[in-house]
Amino acid sequence: MEQESHALLDAINRAIVQFRGNYSRWAAVHGISYNELLVLYTLREQGYCTQKQICDRYLLPRQTINHVIGVLHAGGLLTRRPGPGREKAYVLTDAGLDYARPFWDFLEVGEAAALRRLGSDKLRTLAALLQEYDRALQESLEHREGKQP
Predict the structure, then answer these.
(1) CA-to-CA distance for 62 and 66, rounded, in angstroms?
(2) Most buried pick, 45, 73, 95, 140, via CB within 10 A?
(3) Domains and CATH numbers, the chain
(4) Which residue spans within 83-121 are E strands per DSSP?
């Protein structure tokens, strides 16, 4: 692969890491872990979550999310409800909503400001291109599985 292609892929990977790093730093400043932020973020978007959904969505180990959910559940912030199939789904309790709302509100203001700055058309294009590249990369790597480097 040529040097320009290497540099381009490196720039994309660094941008993605830095993007996720912004959320991680924000979470640390506000006294929560990045993984807890991901659970709260999922609950904001869906209203409930299962461990499997979060693990699949963010490519995280099950034991990591199990720990976060266990801490939130033990603290009275989450409660179980029947989920899809045999899985346990979790929803925020009233205390959990009171706990999460300030995080959600603060994030929403920051994310909305960034969106206004970039513009929804650019962000939509960025999301579509990243998803398209992800599918292409996944397919090409799966095609190469089992072959020696």
Answers:
(1) 6
(2) 73
(3) 3-118 (1.10.10.10)
(4) 88-92
